[in-house]
Amino acid sequence: MFLSSPFLQLSSSLKPHPSPFLHGSSLSIPFLPNASPFFLFPAAPPPPPSLLSVKAMKKMQGRVVCATNDKTVAVEVVRLAPHPKYKRRIRKKKKYQAHDPLNQFKVGDFVELDKSRPISKTKTFVAVPVTARNAPKPIDPVPGDLLGLPLESQQQE
Fold first, then answer.
1. C-alpha to C-alpha distance for 29 and 65, rounded to whole angstroms
2. Domain 60-129 listed as CATH 2.40.50.140
3. Which residue in 68, 91, 96 sits closest to 79, CA to CA?
4. Terminal Cα-to-Cα distance of the chain (whole angstroms)
5. Domain residue ranges of the chain, discontinuous segments joined by +
6. Cα angle vertex 121, ends 71, 107, to 5°?
7. What is the pLDDT of residues 47-94, one digit of tens each?
């Protein structure tokens, strides 16, 4: 009964497809001792090294918000991102743990975060000192000899 079904007779009369890649069969490659299939199809050579280095991540700057741990500071990075609905730029804050090997940073310092290898579970950045944009600039005294005139404080009566 099962052998006489028209479906079984039709499937037995089908010819196999001529492609060697169909149904998981591999190429008929002559056997070479100690050779892998990758040996037969060599990959493209690597590009020559260039002098330009590509950095995938921008350096982030932020303010130290916690410096109580040993050799670790918590840095809060503020960025501007558009609101999803209203498209107005809003401030987004995120805290990162950064490595501070000399314990030189205090709360309120501005630092730059450089990407590094993972130092611990949460630390993948190294804190680098940077001057704040709104920090007061040092005042250089103007020498009186520059203008050729004596200053009022240097005049004698």
1. 65
2. yes
3. 91
4. 133
5. 60-129
6. 35
7. 555 444 456 677 899 999 999 999 999 999 999 999 999 999 999 999
